[in-house]
Specification:
Helix content: 55-70%
InterPro entries: Histone_H1/H5_H15, Homeodomain-like_sf, Myb_dom, SANT/Myb, SMH1-6, WH-like_DNA-bd_sf, WH_DNA-bd_sf
Number of strands: 3
Radius of gyration: 21 Å
Subcellular location: Chromosome; Nucleus, Nucleolus
Number of helices: 13
Distance between the termini: 23 Å
Shape: elongated
Strand order of the largest sheet: 1-3-2
Protein name: MYB transcription factor
Organism: Nelumbo nucifera
Order of helices and strands: HHHHHHEHHEEHHHHH
Structural class: mainly alpha
GO molecular function: double-stranded telomeric DNA binding
Strand content: under 5%
DNA sequence: TTAGGGTTACAG
DNA sequence: CTGTAACCCTAA
């Protein structure tokens, strides 16, 4: 870890993360133009933002997930150094700088590919569950507690996460993506299109499409720890009016999500749970802004900082 | 303007 | 010297 030329400050990094959250990765000119971040990032160019984001992504990916074919050139004299205990590194290092990733979460290990012909219909939490089961590497399957621990350990989980997870597991099992055997869950052998009830084709198909699009919508409400981190960091740099507006927006979105979920919750309790997650975040945001219970929030979001 | 390969400066 | 992060170059 070097500290070379014009090193990025923590404020700049936070602004960059928040900017990516707001406008998306790749919209660097937009982020730079945003008066929200132009102050902190006034000394940086759009290329600088891009490079910094790449550096952060590389260092974050290096130890948590699979690696890309990136450092293929300088590989001639390094001792392979086999790790007899694969848990050792991942347990200790555990980078908490997970970068917001737009690409679908691929399961590491290479045993399974959840990709359909186009995009994966699976939601983010679904992917998290599958990732947990895959990486837990239990041949007999993983129980709900193990899955919950894995996800909570690597990502931020809402307060009602257990209930959310239960709903999701139930949903995934019912839809054939998971197989439940004696309280343990395994990934279904053929995920792609195993279930295809042709009983009443059109109606079921329509329902399914509605379901997946709804799931995608609510998925955006499930935030990783780093996303929360960036959001709160952004709020700290906001003026009171801006923060209030943002919080109001968050609350409004949560309420809309809940209303929508209630309307369609008859069969989809998973969506309802996701809406509750949205409300949880909105409440967290409100607490932060009101300065009420801030220390508790800090503890949740920044266990080792401050 | 951006994505990606390449280069340079600095820390260990 | 090696690895890393900031910086540079250029095709699309």
């Amino acid at each position: 870890m070097g500290a070379p030329k014009q090193k990025w400050t923590a404020e700049e990094e936070a602004a960059l993360k928040a900017g990516v959250l707001k406008h998306g990765a790749g919209k660097w000119r937009t982020i730079l133009k945003d008066p929200e971040f132009s102050g902190v990032l006034s000394l940086r160019s759009n290329v600088d933002l891009k490079d910094k984001w790449r550096n952060m992504s590389v260092t974050a990916n290096g130890w948590g997930s699979r690696e890309k074919a990136r450092l293929a050139l300088k590989r001639s004299q390094q001792i392979p150094k086999y790790d007899d205990n694969p848990m050792a590194l991942s347990t200790v290092v555990r980078s908490d700088e997970e970068i917001v990733d737009v690409k679908p979460l691929a399961i590491s290990g290479g045993a399974l590919q959840i990709d359909g012909p186009k995009r994966s219909i699976l939601s983010r939490l679904d992917n998290l569950i599958l990732e947990a089961i895959t990486n837990l590497k239990d041949p007999s399957g993983s129980n709900k507690t193990s899955i919950a621990l894995y996800i909570e350990d690597q990502y931020w989980a809402p307060p009602n996460f257990k209930r959310l997870l239960s709903a999701k597991l139930k949903y995934l099992t019912a839809s054939g993506k998971l197989i439940k055997v004696k309280r343990k869950y395994r990934i279904a052998p053929s995920l792609a299109f195993s279930e295809r009830r042709r009983s009443s084709g059109l109606l079921l198909l329509e329902e399914r499409q509605k379901d997946s699009s709804r799931a995608e919508k609510y998925d955006s409400k499930i935030l990783t720890k780093s996303q929360i981190d960036a959001e709160l960091a952004k709020m700290r740099n906001m003026t009171a009016e801006e923060a209030a507006a943002a919080a109001a927006r968050a609350v409004a979105e949560a309420e809309a999500a809940i209303a929508e979920a209630e309307e369609a919750a008859r069969e989809a309790d998973a969506a309802e749970a996701d809406a509750e997650a949205a409300q949880a975040f909105a409440e967290a945001a409100m607490m932060t802004l009101k300065g009420r219970n801030t220390s508790k929030l800090v503890k949740i979001f920044f266990p080792h900082i401050e």
